[in-house]
Amino acid sequence: xxxxxxxxxxxxxxxxxxxxxxxxxxxxxxxxxxxxxxxxxxxxxxxxxxxxxxxxxxxxxxxxxxxxxxxxxxxxxxxxxxxxxxxxxxxxxxxxxxxxxxxxxxxxxxxxxxxxxxxxxxxxxxxxxxxxxxxxxxxxxxxxxxxxxxxxxxxxxxxxxxx
Amino acid sequence: xxxxxxxxxxxxxxxxxxxxxxxxxxxxxxxxxxxxxxxxxxxxxxxxxxxxxxxxxxxxxxxxxxxxxxxxxxxxxxxxxxxxxxxxxxxxxxxxxxxxxxxxxxxxxxxxxxxxxxxxxxxxxxxxxxxxxxxxxxxxxxxxxxxxxxxxxxxxxxxxxxxxxxxxxxxxxxxxxxxx
Amino acid sequence: xxxxxxxxxxxxxxxxxxxxxxxxxxxxxxxxxxxxxxxxxxxxxxxxxxxxxxxxxxxxxxxxxxxxxxxxxxxxxxxxxxxxxxxxxxxxxxxxxxxxxxxxxxxxxxxxxxxxxxxxxxxxxxxxxxxxxxxxxxxxxxxxxxxxxxxxxxxxxxxxxxxxxxxxxxxxxxxxxxxxxxxxxxxxxxxxxxxxxxxxxxxxxxxxxxxxxxxxxxxxxxxxxxxxxxxxxxxxxxxxxxxxxxxxxxxxxxxxxxxxxxxxxxxxxxxxxxxxxxxxxxxxxxxxxxxxxxxxxxxxxxxxxxxxxxxxxxxxxxxxxxxxxxxxxxxxxxxxxxxxxxxxxxxxxxxxxxxxxxxxxxxxxxxxxxxxx
Amino acid sequence: xxxxxxxxxxxxxxxxxxxxxxxxxxxxxxxxxxxxxxxxxxxxxxxxxxxxxxxxxxxxxxxxxxxxxxxxxxxxxxxxxxxxxxxxxxxxxxxxxxxxxxxxxxxxxxxxxxxxxxxxxxxxxxxxxxxxxxxxxxxxxxxxxxxxxxxxxxxxxxxxxxxxxxxxxxxxxxxxxxxxxxxxxxxxxxxxxxxxxxxxxxxxxxxxxxxxxxxxxxxxxxxxxxxxxxxxxxxxxxxxxxxxxxxxxxxxxxxxxxxxxxxxxxxxxxxxxxxxxxxxxxxxxxxxxxxxxxxxxxxxxxxxxxxxxxxxxxxxxxxxxxxxxxxxxxxxxxxxxxxxxxxxxxxxxxxxxxxxxxxxxxxxxxxxxxxxxx
Lengths: 163, 180, 373, 374
What we know:
By secondary structure, chain A is an alpha+beta fold. Chain A has helices at about 1-15, 55-60, 105-110, 140-145, and strands at about 40, 45, 50, 65-75, 90-95, 115, 135.
């Protein structure tokens, strides 16, 4: 009985503490900078085209084969009178968010820092009615970066913090 | 130092100095066991026919006292047969040993270790269904993880095919037609 | 015979009273569900319901609407009559118990001279409904739950009744209103602390509240007799549970805490008396919810052992001491001292019980089965 | 006459199917219990509902890709699972892990142990029958740990943060103060659990003397982790075959002798206190430095060989048996699951006890079905 009294005092002490509930859909907790939702393609604002050159590095490294990449000759390349230094550029890009396991490997293997994990709530709240709607195309993948809605974090692999 | 290099080197016995092989060799008197030095533990190869005798001897030996079966599994070496691998540990003497028995592909039968440790029960059931190794005298030879009727195909063998991945994008989404 | 409530003919009057009970109790039960969820939420460091209406006040209404709208499923193998009438057999006796509840002086549905006896008689009827639900569902969890409920109710009926008896011995009546009125100076809990404790524990068991929620044990028998019920029938069980929680709290406050009488007497008017009863009942309900948030569930054999080996002898002892004091006309303070001694005895017996070596037949069975396999 | 009356009152045992969907089976575990009234006569466990072939999948993945699958094998203690895997790869590939990476690994692994044990406390408290309270208490403190992991690795459960050779990227600059904050929260959580359950008479009555397994039986069944230490066997890989820096700091192996459910609970409670101590010492020893070896190949390849690496995960020994035939992917990867071995002893521990006890015993060995089935 004394032990039960102790239990009840413990619960009472919690009763008078403030509750810990987060009012999720109303109040979004600020996400840490490194938060990983789903991969996104980044937009090169200087030239106004994606960073991605369609080199297939991420596609090959993906453990779950959720990506499909197709490249093309860049119509905006300097050799044809454009402004871009990229000879090849991404043509079509699909990521199946339903299959992606958010392992960050595509970000790590990318040589152009063209892909990053979405670290906003938009990347987490992706529920749809049909699984096919989770296959994102190039336009959907670049929108957030294009209109500056994310501040991406690209990890510096294997490098220690300074001092 | 890898195991391959160890076996290829001229004096493999020398690398076993300072290990428990001397004790193991004494305990396994009468059994044709060979040893090599692994990266952490000594690996002992025992013929499959004598495996239970060897395991019992290793458990019963007063100084070795391998009373704890860490893990029991198999490795499919394709044409070289299937290795059944026992990882032993002694909770009193605190040493490890890896015991291997290589089964030929046409004779995947080995005696059950459940008579030595009860821990072997489920591990053997799993190994049996995954590799098609048959454990003679197993008290409960049902499947463990697989469906009850799945006794003709062995998922962890190297010749078992992986499932096709269903691709919902690219050509599956009608890309190829508009490209061509 | 009392006059009809609104001076109407007895049949119409009876009907109005009936509707009042049902309506009032339904609303009370819904309110209690809301309160329990809110209070339990705070014990859990959460906030409880908060989306439906201001502060989630409409949560119970939303739940009720949802439950009424749901399909009323009956398993194909269930026995139709026992399955469908189980909820009524739980529901009706609980509501009958409302008849004798004293909320204010001279005003309850009926003032019965044998009020306590009537209450004990009807409240224990609802166990038939539990067993019917458990048996009729044709589900093994439900059957185990129903059997547990029957065993539990029968065991705890005895200490429950005996501690009621000791109160009525003290006041010399079985009329609940008179018991309340007799506490105008000192509430009964002062004279009968042991009976109060036993009654509280037995009431928890009668209500199937933790730590005695063995019949419905969520983590064992997944809701016990209710496991196959859905929709309106399930909600009847639920309403019944909370209605009986309310009735039991009012009863405890009336019998032990002085009901509407103590400490201000009856001069302050009916409204105030009602408020006093409700406040006391609310305290008891809070205590019950608090216990629910804090204690694990007992096992069935421990539950039975506790009733028969500890609660029953002690409640008999209480009756004996009461008789002794009353016959020899000793000062009442003797009762208090004896009661406190009894409470200490109860606490020490309970703590001793968990230290005793446990009788287990585990090892012998393992060897049997391993020899067989 | 005796035989006649015996046959007249013959009772029939009831087969009670528990799971795969049942509130107390902690996932998709199923057992069929033969009950005589309330007493369990026979238990037949069925597993495999969550088998995804993680071992086979890892054989088709290179070493970096495999890390993600280790997370999913042991989702409540993913850091510990990753640790076993990356240590196996490191030993095979002969990689030297820098000092700082080892300390950080140790902090993360112990924090993950705290998170996992908190989860046990919560689920176990609910099994015993406290309505929801322990679960939310556990969730509250586990949330603190998981938030920290999210700030470090970016994910809340599937970290993919440890890499062969060290860590994927360095911890944030406010790492040390944040860990200290989390430890404060966890200490409060431990105190709450201690107050709520440890001395509660009903809790003691329910757990003491239930599901007893002797030390010899526990060893024979290959149990590990707190489940075997509660039976009096001081089997802790961290102490017996020290890895990381466990030899450099001061900590105790928690054992109890009773071998019952209560002992397993107390073992875990004390282990949480011990983990807090370990993390505090690690924080003091943490120095700036490299987190990856100097020369890391772009694609990690291992020489042929085999290795069985074992680490102490919250539920016991998490072993990874890695066979390499050269190249960048394993030839065979076997996960030695502590839960599988512990679960084997369930039948031994439950037969003869009450139905309610059987579920408590199941809760007390703290299984994670994804690790059992892999």
